[in-house]
Design brief:
The protein has one domain: Alpha-Beta Plaits (2-Layer Sandwich), CATH 3.30.70.100. Helix content is 32%, strand content 32%. It is built from 4 helices and 6 strands, in the order E-H-E-E-H-E-E-H-H-E. The protein has helices spanning 21-36, 57-68, 105-110, 114-123; strands at residues 4-13, 39-44, 48-55, 73-84, 95-99, 128-129. A 6-stranded mixed beta sheet has the order 4-1-3-2-5-6, with helices on both faces. A hairpin with a 3-residue loop joins strand 2 and strand 3 (48-55). It starts with a strand and ends in a 7-residue tail after the last strand. The structure holds flavin mononucleotide. Flavin mononucleotide binds at residues 25, 28-29, 32-33, 40, 42, 49, 51, 63, 66-67, 70, 72-73.
Amino acid sequence: MPERRQLLYISRLSPHTTPACVAEIVRNARQRNQAQGIGSLLVFDGLRFCQYLEGEAKAVESLAERIRKDPRHTGFTLLHQGTSNGPSLLGGRRFIYALCYDDSLDSVEQASGPQALDLLTGMLKTFDLDPGPRGA
Ligand SMILES: Cc1cc2nc3c(=O)[nH]c(=O)nc-3n(C[C@H](O)[C@H](O)[C@H](O)COP(=O)(O)O)c2cc1C
C-alpha cells in the first residue's frame, strides 16, 4: 500500500463571511480533491471547521497551504501531520462532509497529534453525514 500523508487542522469560520460559503467550499473541494487523488473529511459545527486530508504528500501539502490562506476562515491550527501505509481512514469514501450539532469538536481541538485524529474518526458514525453524489 503506498505511503499516504495525513493532515488534520481546525479553524474558525471568518466573522467576515457566513455559513452560506460552506456549500460552495464543499462543492468545489469535492471535485478538486477527486482530481488530485486526495481523500477528505470536512466537519463543520456552525462555528468551526475541522478537516482531515490524506493523499500523496506534495498534493496534501500544497492543498493545506492554499486552505491555510483562505480568508473564509481564521485561526488555522495544525493538529496532526503524519504518514500511514495502512488503509484509508475514510472507509472507502473520497470526500465526506459532516455537520456537527454539539460541542464534539472541543475534545479534538484540545487534543493534538494522532489522538486528535483518533477522536475525529471515532466520531464519524455520530455525525450527520452528507450522502454525497453517487460513487463519492
Ligand atoms: C474550511 C475550508 C476547507 C477547504 N477545503 C478544500 C478542499 O478540501 N479542497 C480544495 O480544493 N479546496 C478547499 N478549500 C478551498 C481552498 O482554500 C481554495 O479556495 C481552493 O482550493 C482554490 O484555490 P485556488 O483559488 O488557489 O486555486 C477549503 C476552504 C476552506 C475555508
